[in-house]
Structures are given as structure tokens and as C-alpha cells.
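Please fill in the sequence for the structure shown.

STRUCTURE ENCODING:
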């Protein structure tokens, strides 16, 4: 009940997203940290090989009570916001990790239930997909409890396939899983059953014979029920009826401002604009789906020239909507009403959120607070372990860099309070990275 009170307190604010279209200095202290979760520092001895925290992604739950975070090391963590979140305090409040689900192999994708309600344990669920296992439905309140599993098996090799992206339908009665250039639809109530339907994107028809590529991300326009799927070959496909219908269109990102594959998609609240972000690109492309997927504008200045996935998120505002994204420079940036001009559009506001790349910038559903998370650019640091022998290394980092692998939440303008970060120790003994969740408010 205390958590429920926190939701009502935050939702009651209903603050306008404070994006100044006139542009602001990055050092403007509009945002201040009101809450954080910091794990107790652990000293690693010379022979230890413990993976340090590394936040890849974070999502607010639909009711705004909690944050679900994807962490390197096969973990999904849930955090419940404190009931006194917006009450004045001289120091950031403490956010306690409520639960952690650890899978036996790397998590490839996850999705939170669209009707998540902390007061109803039957709705505090999320999907997670990992290698060599069925897709599983877990409960955030009971981390060891598995509600259901949904096998997706290769018909030739009889091995489990791990979706690269998952998304729930609007009603929560079904979900869509993406494998290669195909999407699969599952009935959430059919525990132990495989997909009820599938659809492959026909390259020969829609892409002029070129390969569509591996689907890396999906996003659902809940206003019109159109599902967008983006591939690492820079292609986008649109499906009707919450992903249960046919593929109605495909198109390719323009070569100008070319990146290295689509890793994040977002819809404007009214379903007019589709926004696409890539790896190794400082830009976000904006398309008007009403007019033959017309390329409208380019949002510049994201600072995301990296193989690391830095996500984007879209939130409604009193003036329309806002795109938020993080950069490799530790900044969180916002663009107000993308698509309002048929040209390049720089960020309208930015602030320093972390010392490391910001992987997620997400708004509370009520608009009162904002959360950010960060991760060192590359593999999670391992104590005294050669990264070349640990597999799946995307990008090695300097062990001497200060680490700030954290999640943060910000209420929507006063002085910015930096969450204390304990630096690493020497080569033989060093401290674990601070594992924190920050919440910010203006």
C-alpha cells in the first residue's frame, strides 16, 4: 500500500515535461537527483572474478510504481519507488532493489506487462528471453516464481530460439517475438504452447530483392495498433492489428547520417511519427507514416557514435511529445515535438546525468520524474580476467576509468546532487562499481 501511495503522489503532480525549446546550457541545474539506489561497495581481492554492475536498459512499469532494469550478467532487477519520493530532502532518498531474476544464459530481450499493477500480483509480470530456453513469464514480486513458458523451437535443429525483441500487444493478451526476419505471435494464456501465428517479411516483394536483415527492435503504436520492426540492415517493416496482421509496408533508412543498424524505435503518442535510432550514429530519423513513410527530419546531437546500444524513449507532454536519449558523454538530451520542422533539429535541452554513457532516459508515466541509467562503454569489468577469454566482448574498456554503472531517477529544477561514486582501488584490489538507481526531478 505504501508503494501505491507513492504512485498516487507522483501521478498527482502531472508536471509538464520541462523541455525548453529555446535551448539551455548543459550546466543549467534544472534537474536534481531526488533518489538513488546504491549497492554496498565490495572490495575484490586479487583472485576474484566477479562481474561488476552494468545497466543495459530500464523501463518504467505502466502504473509508475516500479522500474524494471536489464543488467549485464543475465539479470532483471525490479525497483519500487519510495512513497515519499517527491517530499523535500537534503539528500537523495534510498531506492531499494525489490527483487532480482537471474537466468542461466544471457538475456536477449524482455518486455513488461502493459497493465502492470503493483497492487495486483497477477499483473506484476514481465517476459524474458534467453539462449537455449523457452520464453518465460516471471513475476517481479516473486523473483523465483515462473508463471508460464512459451517454447520457440527451430523445426530443423530442434533447439530453442531466443527472440532479439519482445513486445506485448495493447491488451496484454498476446505478445510478439522477433527472430531473424520473422515475427511470431503468442497467446499469453497458453502456457507451454508455441506461437499461434508467424509472419516473415518477404524481401523479394517489399525490399526489391534485398535482405531485410535481423530484427533488433520493435515498437507498438497503441493508438492505431501498428507494430514497427527495425533491422540491423537499416530496414523498417510495419504490421497491422498489433502485430497479428499482415506486413503492410517496408522501407529503408536514408543513407545520409548512416549508422550501423536500427537498435531503437519509438512512436509519437498519436501514431503520426515513427522515430528510429541506430548504433554508431549521432542522429535519430523521423518519419511521417501518414504520407508514404515520408522522411521528415533528423534529430542531431545524440552523441551515440558507439557500438553500445543507447536507447531512445518517447513521452507525451502538454505541448505534444518529447524524445529523450542518452549519449556517450554522460548527457541526457531531449527534443521537443520531433518532426515540427522539415530539417535537422538539435536537442532542446540537455543535462549531465552520469560519467559514463547513458543507456536509457525514461519518463515516469505521470510525467513527474525522469530516470536514467548508465553503463561503461564495453564489456562489464572483470577483476583480473583477460577480456579476450570471456566471449561476447563488444568493446573493451580501460580498467583505470572510473565506473558509474547506474540507474538514476530525476524529479522534474533545483541544484543537481551528484550521487557518491566510490572509485576503484589499485590493480590488485579495487572496489566494485557503484550500482545505483537515480531519480531526478525539475
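FILLED IN BY: designer on duty
SEQUENCE:
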Amino acid at each position: 500500500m505504501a508503494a501505491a501511495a507513492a504512485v498516487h503522489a507522483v501521478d498527482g503532480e502531472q508536471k509538464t515535461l520541462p523541455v525548453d525549446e529555446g535551448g539551455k546550457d548543459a550546466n543549467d541545474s534544472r534537474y536534481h537527483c531526488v533518489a538513488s539506489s546504491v549497492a554496498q561497495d565490495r572490495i575484490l581481492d586479487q583472485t576474484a572474478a566477479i562481474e561488476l554492475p552494468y545497466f543495459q536498459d530500464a523501463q518504467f512499469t505502466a502504473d509508475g510504481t516500479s522500474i524494471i532494469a536489464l543488467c549485464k550478467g543475465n539479470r532483471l532487477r525490479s525497483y519500487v519507488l519510495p512513497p515519499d519520493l517527491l517530499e523535500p530532502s537534503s539528500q537523495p532518498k534510498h531506492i531499494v532493489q525489490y527483487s532480482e531474476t537471474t537466468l542461466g544464459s544471457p538475456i536477449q530481450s524482455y518486455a513488461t506487462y502493459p497493465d502492470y499493477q503493483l497492487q495486483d500480483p497477477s499483473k506484476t509480470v514481465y517476459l524474458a528471453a534467453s539462449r537455449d530456453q523457452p520464453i518465460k513469464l516471471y513475476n517481479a514480486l516473486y523473483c523465483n516464481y515462473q508463471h508460464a513458458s512459451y517454447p520457440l523451437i527451430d523445426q530443423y535443429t530442434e533447439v530453442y530460439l531466443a527472440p532479439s525483441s519482445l513486445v506485448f500487444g495493447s491488451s496484454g493478451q498476446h505478445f510478439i517475438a522477433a527472430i531473424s526476419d520473422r515475427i511470431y505471435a503468442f497467446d499469453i494464456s497458453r502456457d507451454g504452447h508455441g506461437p499461434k501465428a508467424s509472419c516473415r517479411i518477404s524481401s523479394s516483394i517489399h525490399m526489391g530483392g534485398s535482405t531485410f536483415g535481423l530484427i533488433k527492435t520493435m515498437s507498438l503504436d497503441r493508438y492505431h495498433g501498428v507494430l514497427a520492426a527495425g533491422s540491423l540492415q537499416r530496414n523498417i517493416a510495419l504490421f497491422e492489428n498489433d502485430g497479428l496482421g499482415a506486413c503492410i509496408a517496408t522501407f529503408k533508412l536514408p543513407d545520409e547520417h548512416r549508422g550501423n543498424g536500427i537498435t531503437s524505435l519509438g512512436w509519437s503518442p498519436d501514431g503520426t511519427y515513427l522515430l528510429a535510432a541506430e548504433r554508431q550514429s549521432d542522429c535519430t530519423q523521423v518519419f511521417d507514416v501518414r504520407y508514404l513513410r515520408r522522411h521528415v527530419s533528423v534529430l542531431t546531437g545524440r552523441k551515440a557514435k558507439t557500438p553500445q546500444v543507447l536507447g531512445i524513449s518517447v513521452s507525451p507532454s502538454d505541448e505534444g511529445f518529447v524524445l529523450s536519449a542518452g549519449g556517450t558523454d554522460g548527457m541526457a538530451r531531449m527534443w521537443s515535438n520531433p518532426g515540427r520542422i522539415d530539417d535537422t533539429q538539435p536537442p532542446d535541452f540537455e543535462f549531465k546525468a552520469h560519467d559514463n554513457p547513458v543507456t536509457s532516459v525514461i519518463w515516469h508515466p505521470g510525467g513527474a520524474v525522469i530516470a536514467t541509467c548508465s553503463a561503461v562503454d564495453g564489456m562489464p569489468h572483470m577483476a583480473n580476467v583477460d577480456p579476450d577469454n570471456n566471449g561476447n566482448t563488444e568493446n573493451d574498456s580501460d580498467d583505470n576509468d572510473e565506473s558509474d554503472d547506474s540507474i538514476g531517477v530525476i524529479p522534474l529544477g533545483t541544484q543537481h546532487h551528484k550521487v557518491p561514486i566510490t572509485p576503484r582501488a589499485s590493480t590488485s584490489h579495487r572496489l566494485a562499481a557503484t550500482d545505483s538507481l537515480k531519480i531526478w526531478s525539475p
